[in-house]
Amino acid sequence: MLQIQYRMHPGICEFPSQQFYDGKLQTRSSPKWDIETPLRIWINRKKIPIVFCHVEGEEEYLAVSTEEGNEQSCSNKKEVDKVVKILKHLIEHEGLDLSDYENLNIMSQYSSQCHQIRLAVSDIENVNVNTVVASQGGEWNYVIFSTVRSLPGYRIEKIPTLGWCKKNLGFISDEHQINVALTRARRGLIIIGNKNLLSCDPVWKKLIDHYATLGCVVDESEEFPTRSSGVFGNQRTQHGGTTGCRNMSKKLMRKKVEEESEEEFYRGTDREQEMLEHRQTLNHEESLYF
């Protein structure tokens, strides 16, 4: 079992470690996630880069063509709208540069939702939208994950049976796919979904409770993201736009670190042994669905 990871911010890694790796998955510092200036969008006081956005949308079903013929797939317009709002905020107020493929991935487990999101952002260039299955093995600086499934409160069972959960949650409760979805982001993860319905599944309930304990759950009545959480005027971030002169040298240094192989960069330093351990863990990367 994988025990050391370099991909994710420890705040992103904490829940997957607890849920899927018996709390043994440790985070080591890496230029992949350890950046000088985090986004200002994060609502937690400690700026832990995770958010769960509660959205009570409505499911719609469409026929999607597959290799095995047409299949029913689910979409949720209200969640699409939320994805677009967050995406535009990241571009306009956080300076996120989408020309870098690794900066952002928008995910859903449903092909129909991915299709609707692509249509909604068709006027924006270089937007990555993929299913969770297609995202397996990839990693991005930031991930927006739309869970899609939703029911009005009066239709949600207080004590749901396994059959009820299977019907109303579908493969959104598949632990393999949950693990994949939660471990794609390096620097920030935003999940959009109906917390009341998702909490019927034990894994999702634990995740939502974990996020709530950290102050990382946004209710539908709350505005997110807010304009005050962005960057304005001539000030820019290092997330794709230009930086101020004071931060430029640090950005270039980190860029150089990322471009050089980690082996060469750390050779002859105290971290050489640590990098050797890191390479050994890659033999077990299937445990994290890399």
- Poorly predicted runs are 230-238, 241-273, 278-287
Q: Just give the CATH class.
A: Alpha Beta
Number of strand elements: 10
What structural category do the secondary elements indicate?
alpha/beta
State the domain count. Answer: 1
The succession of helices and strands, N to C, reads EHEEEEHEHEHEHHEHHEHHH
CATH architecture tag: 3-Layer(aba) Sandwich
Percent of residues in helices comes to 25-40%
Strand order of the biggest β-sheet: 7-6-8-9-3-10
Span between termini: 13 Å
CATH level-3 fold name: Rossmann fold
Strand content: 15-25%
Number of helical elements: 11
Global outline: globular
Task: Report what the structure shows.
- It comes from Crassostrea virginica.
- GO terms for molecular function: 5'-3' DNA helicase activity; ATP binding; hydrolase activity.
- Keywords: ATP-binding, Helicase, Hydrolase, Nucleotide-binding.
- By secondary structure, the protein is of the alpha/beta class.
- The protein has a single domain (4-288), classed as 3-Layer(aba) Sandwich (Rossmann fold).
- The protein has eleven helices and ten strands.
- It has helices at residues 10-20, 77-94, 111-120, 132-135, 162-169, 175-182, 195-198, 202-213, 245-259, 262-266, 272-281, and strands at residues 4-5, 26-27, 50-54, 59-66, 69-76, 104-108, 129-131, 140-146, 185-193, 217-218.
- The strands form three sheets. It has a six-stranded parallel beta sheet. Strands 1-2 form a two-stranded parallel sheet. A two-stranded antiparallel ribbon has the order 4-5.
- The longest helix has 18 residues, at 77-94.
- The protein is globular.
- The two termini are 13 Å apart.
- Residues 230-238, 241-273 and 278-287 have low confidence and may be disordered.
